[in-house]
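Researcher: Checking consistency across runs. Here is DUF7869 domain-containing protein again:
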Amino acid sequence: MECLASPSTSGKTRKRTAHPENWKQNIAKRQRYSPKESPNRPRCQHLRKGVYKCESITMRDVMNFHAAFYKYHNKETQDAFLLKYCVPVIPKRKRPKNKKHHPKTIHTNYSIYSVSQKKKITICQKAFLGILNITKHRVQYIAKKFVESGGQAVKEKRGGDHKSHLFTEKKNAVMLFINMFHIDEAHYCRGHSERRYLPAELSINKMWKMYNKQPNFEANLKVKKGLFRKIFNNNYNLGFGSPRTDVCSTCILLLEKIKRESDEAQKQRLMVEHRVHKLKAKAFFNLVREERPNLKTFSFDCEKNLPLPKTPDQITYYSRQLYLYNCTIVEGSSKTPLTTQNVFAYCWTEDQYAKGANAIASIVYHRLMNTNLTDISTIRLIADGCPGQNKNSIMIAMCSKWLSSSAPDHVQRIEIVFPIVGHSFIPPDRVFAHVEKDVRKLECILRPEDYLEIIGTYSTIVRMGSDCEVLNFKSGMSSVIKDVGSWHFQFKHCKRFLIQRSKEIGNVVIQGEVHYTNNLGVLKKITRKNKKASDLNPEVITQNIVRIKPAKLVDVKKLLTTHFGN
């Protein structure tokens, strides 16, 4: 959803926020205004009946006064504390002892708050300075400046920021300009991110030029590129998006129609259509992330073909290559952490088996047969809607066979869910992202084992043929399952298939749904007359029966010869 840019309020900006309290000079400054030693009790021998009642204060009063002064380790706060208990007065009579001594311009009265007596007690200068462990020059300087300024507290002029206030007006103008740009959320982010993105064609340099070239713009508000960049980096968490790929075609079509449409009624209809499309996608992802005690979710998908050999030679682009196939199943919802215990990668090479519906159905069948389903009543299978591999009658037949003959008695239902086209991001895609990131780091990959070593870092490897047999469900189902055209629902438009145990032992009933949340269809059998789903007995497909075209083998040999020589 598009919105306008705004300053970051969470403290997370493009550039890391500075923490001045951790700077060495500020640490040294805090230590400078921290206590160096314990307070000294007054030993000036002033009697209780005199002007200075130094002997009347207790050690508790001394400790409390010392702690209150050093509570804050900055000069301004401590100076304000001193002015509270050091009262500067101008002497009424000035009687210097001789001509060498100048008359005093300021006289300071010192006092301390007594907790036991609950009042201020006047003490001498020596006692006051001994309690706080400070010099008389600091107190005299503060008192002098206080009197000269007419009763104003002394301001610290050393260090600090003395320039930012000069550019406040310019900063506000720049931020107002940035706030006018439309931003988008990350298209490829797998979680919630606070980073927002401006259009890919923009940059900080272009935005700075646009800012300074605004029509009717005041010259005194123009800024240098460095200041514009500093404001952008330190106040906003904005990036510049890359051109999007693999975007939903329906979303792009509807958004472009909305932009061009001038008729308000037609534009409203298109906006509603786009909104419904997004809600359907959201309903699908709600099913992917759903977790219940009696529900077991499996999501599966095929990674893009991994070429063998992988070499950096230029001729590779024009050469045909052999491929390693990887079909990954993730056990759990999208919220489940991905580990080698719940991620299973079924791998085989191009010459072993075809990458078709039989192989994918056999992989899902193997995983269902080898998973602990204790206390599970519903199995949910999630995959993309590729008709050649996942969304076909062969997958339905396999699930019917397993539920009717091999599933535990407490498993009553299988639900197969397919996404809205263009919104098919499921957990296996996260595994593929990790694998492909590691593959890109390697310049040469010559053996399937090199790929399997990378894939095995993120999953449990299952080898097709040796660990998992490939069954011929396609030929076995023809005599048991009706043709798709004879089913009681339109297969093409369905997004969910519900398979339940039938009252007839060894058989199942199936229901097709076009919605993700509402069940409007009816449960009926799809088996032929006098047949049950349990009658389906697929044969094992022999390994290494796939014939590689001779021209491809020639290309692979030529590629290896070019890279390594004869």
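Researcher: Does this match what you'd expect to see?
Model: One thing to look at in this run: Residues 249-279 form one domain.
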